[in-house]
Amino acid sequence: MELTLNRPLRRSFMKGLLGTTSFWMAAGSTQWAEALAAETAAQSYQPAFFDMKEYQFLEAASDRLFPSDHNSPGGKALGVAEFIDRQMQTPYGHGENWYMSGPFQQGPANLGYQLPFVPRDLYRKGIAGVETYARQHYGKEFAALAAVQQDEILTVLEGGSVQLGEIPGRVFFEQLRTNTLEGVFADPLYGGNRGLAGWVMLGFPGARADFMDWVNQEGAPYPIGPVSISGETA
Amino acid sequence: MGKKHVDAIIVGAGWAGAILAKELTEAGLSVVMLERGAERTTQIEGAYPDSIDELRGAVRKRLFQNLSQSTVTIRNTMDQTALPYRQLSAFLPGEGVGGAGLHWSGVHFRVAPEDLRLRSSVVERYGEKFIPEGMNLQDYGVTYEDLEPFFDKAEKVFGTSGEAYKVQGKIVGNGNVFSPDRSSDFPLPVMKDTFSASIFRDAAKNAGYHPYALPAANASRQYTNTYGCQMGPCNFCGYCSGYDCYLYSKASPNVNILPALRQDPRFSLIPNAHVLRVDLDSTKTKATGVTYLDTKTRKETSLSADLVILGAFQFNNVHLMLVSGIGKPYDPVSNTGTVGRNFVYQTITSSRVWLPSSTYTNQFVGAGGAGVAIDDFNSMNFDHGPLGFVGGSPVWVNQAGMKPIAAATGAGGGGTPRWGSAYKDALINTYKHSLGIDAHGSNMAYRDVYLDLDPTWKDAYGQPLLRMTFTWKDNDIRMNQYVVSKIEPVARAMGATKMNLVHLNPGQPFDTRKYQTTHLGGGAIMGENPQTSALNRYLQSWDVSNVFVIGSNAFPQGMGYNPTGMVAALAYWAAHHIRTTYLKSPGPLVQA
User: Fold this and answer.
1) Start and end of every FAD-binding domain (chain B) (predicted)?
2) Choosing from B440, B519, B576, B577, which is the catalytic residue?
3) What is the residue-wise DSSP string for B171-237?
């Protein structure tokens, strides 16, 4: 799509202004700065919460949950691991909006999550548990296994028969699946959905947010590609 | 030092609170409104493009209640231990100025008149024995005729778009044939049908049903309301539910009432003020004011007032009554007391219909309040005699703007993959070529479904959490299944290549993990008998006459319609009687 041309132009324009008063006036939002920082860092992102082994697990697992195929790039190329690492540093990662007062008592599944762990705990303990499981059953860490073996492990976790230390495998799987899909489909502002490839796959136009002329076009597809909050197009 | 005194305190800055504040300041009262959440103004945090960020909005739930401070516990049956609702999922109460009125979709109904006198209506048609054992079926104590002027008033404040059927006894348009007479037309013309809604309209009509456009508090045109507040035309951007509308098209207290109120010197709004209790005198029959905590400074303040209005979210109103000692707590064993009684919800199931791959439903296009519905199976519009259940359900296509994270996390399951390449294929097909049809139904009240205080868990302020005892009952499951069975032929006529019809099932308890709806109701209901209702027909506490409790807490049953229109009408109804009768001679408006 011809709009792709806008992307490097806009980026270099904004980069030229970076750090100047004009930049902050033009940006009008801290999110612009964040977005630019994310783009610049995408190739050399240094995780802040996860260590490199954990990060490699996230890259590998997100690439099986959301694999590269004829429809789109996979979770690794889309930046899911970076997305999750950055989320761990937000109030969400710290479980600040969850009710985390005890006592913690387990009950029927339909009464919801009852563990004393916030997302940061779930990842730290969950990844360690999966790595233990991988070494016990396959003799290697998760990221070093073949795709088919990684899929076997994820299938077992999803099925709910494995306990990862204090964390039920199913709970960890659901956390990982949810955050992986968020990373694929959230605005690239947050480090994932690189190149808007998640949105391109679904035909979602992103921040266009004006469909006055497409309320009813008798089932024709929407013709314009996506745009992100920072103005990136694809 | 004496406490600061005001004429009226209003708890909660949502629709109910904003309407009461406007009415009471118009009557010349000084009003302080206490809101436990943050200040929220559309021109700042609701502005494009930050507001249309799915992760920040609907996923991380920017506008919703922060459960770390206060939540509820939930159990299905009385013999279980209720456990805390630790993560927002099944229902999403709002928090901050605007309350749920800021994040709602905008479906703005009146009421099916017979829903207001459902017990009487069922008994007249089918006899007393038709009502199942243990069902607390009750009338509201008000009629549609009582409320009509207030529905009309609310629509002119909300800037509601719709198509009338009957105005002043004359058929005027292609609206809902089951809807009652109106004193005037909608203030704005009907919203357009999305493609998905338009094919539902055609198929429903061909099947002999009576499709109509949902009444939407999404402005179909520029509008200036009763208070001089302005709305812009909706462009179907799809960011309604879970978002503050960047176009000022979706009605909210923030856009439609507060701009007028904020200019009134008699009005003040205090955000970050968590009300701990309504203070009562020693007789427990008169409120003297409220005590609140500034959540930033953690400082407690008591305010004195002649009149206290509870306008918090449904269950927060009930919680405040219980922790303050207003009225008698309901006890399901002895079947006595009223506060916590008739806690209700709605039976909502969403079915999915796939169209051929040449047809794109563009599900990201939408408006929260727009769509096409049929009422042929709602309320008392069909013969329940041979069916043996009470209640009903509108059926609709309400394409409100499906975003990719919601679509992706909800996709798969039920025997199909939830990850991997096959999952991706199915997700793409579903996102591009499917549509949803909802059965948005009633939920009756039962003796053993109720609210009380939890014996174990406490909120961040040391008060006991509210405990919900709730599950689905046979009557409502059968109603839902019957209505969903009517979807299948309509979906076939729409050209479905595949469908997934979803209904409630016996033996499946209420699941707190899956979003259903935020339309909770009851718990402090209105009625004609102080033995079976906490509030009289003016939403005044039977026990503490200078406390009025405004919200869906007043509904004796969960109705098929979305509740906001009814809440707004009840708010204006109560305000009218406060202004015309109560203020002249404070005291009970109905003798117990």
Assistant:
1) 6-43
2) B519
3) E-SSS-TTSPPBSS--SBPPPPPPHHHHHHHHHHHHTT---EEPPBSB-SS-EE-TTS-EE-----B
Q: Which chain A residues are closer than 8 Å to B359 by Cβ?
A: 219
Cβ–Cβ under 8 Å, residues B170 and B344: no
pLDDT digits (tens, 9 = 90+) for B12-44: 999 999 999 999 999 999 999 999 999 998 888
Q: Is B103 labeled as catalytic in the residue annotation?
A: no
Return the pLDDT at A2. Answer: 34
Assess if residue B281 is contained within a domain: yes
For residue B305, the enclosing domain spans: 4-584
Burial level of B333, CB count in 10 A (0-12/13-18/19+)? exposed
Q: Is residue B589 part of a domain?
A: no
- For chain A, positions 163-202, list CB contacts with chain B under 8 A: 177-178, 181-182, 184-187, 189-190, 198-199, 201-202
How far does A154 lie from chain B, in Å, by closest CA? 10
As a whole-number percent, the residues of chain A with pLDDT over 90 amount to 81
CB contact under 8 A, A211 and B236: yes
Q: Is the torsion defined by CA of B392, B397, B399, B404 positive or negative?
A: positive
DSSP letter at B37? S
Question: Residues B422, A88, A7, CA angle at the centre, nearest 5°?
Answer: 65
Residue B230 has pLDDT above 80, yes or no: yes
Contact of B427 with chain A, judged by CB distance below 8 Å, is answered with yes
DSSP characters for B559-585? Answer: -SS-SHHHHHHHHHHHHHHHHHTGGGS
Nearest CA-CA partner of B42 in B223, B178, B265, B245: B245
Q: Is the dihedral of CA B218, B223, B229, B230 positive or negative?
A: positive
Place B45 in a pLDDT band, splitting at 50, 70 and 90: confident
Instruction: For residue B103, give how far its alpha carbon lies from the nearest alpha carbon of chain A (Å).
Output: 17
Q: How many CA atoms lie within 13 A of B389 on its CB side?
A: 22
Q: Which of B310, B337, B377, B380 is nearest to B112 (CA)?
A: B380
| Maximum distance among all Cα pairs of chain B, rounded to whole angstroms | 74
pLDDT at A1 over 80: no
Structural domains of chain B, count: 1
Note the pLDDT tens digit of each residue in A174-215: 999 999 999 999 999 999 999 999 999 999 999 999 999 999
Residue of A nearest to B470 (CA): A111
- We report the CATH number of the domain holding residue B89 as 3.50.50.60
- The per-residue pLDDT for range B513-570, each reduced to its tens digit, is 999 999 999 999 999 999 999 999 999 999 999 999 999 999 999 999 999 999 999 9
Cα gap B378→B397, rounded to integer Å: 15
CA distance between the termini of chain A:
7
Helix A52-65 / helix A147-159 crossing angle, nearest 10 deg: 80
What is the reported pLDDT for A44? 85
pLDDT in tens, B314-334: 999 999 999 999 999 999 999
Arithmetic mean of pLDDT over chain B: 97
Query: What are the pLDDT digits (tens) for B194-210?
Result: 999 999 999 999 999 99
Tokens, residue B525: 């209901």
Is a pLDDT exceeding 90 seen at residue B152? yes
Collapsed DSSP state (helix, strand, coil) of residue B536: coil
* CA end-to-end distance (rounded Å), chain B: 38
Alpha carbon of residue A170 to chain centroid: 19
Q: What is the pLDDT of residues B455-475, one digit of tens each?
A: 999 999 999 999 999 999 999
A148 and B CB contact within 8 Å:
no
**pLDDT tier at A23 (50, 70, 90 boundaries)?**
very low
Structural contact between residues B380 and A230, judged by C-beta atoms closer than 8 angstroms: no
Residues A203, B360: C-beta atoms closer than 8 Å? yes
**A211 CB within 8 Å of a chain B CB:** yes
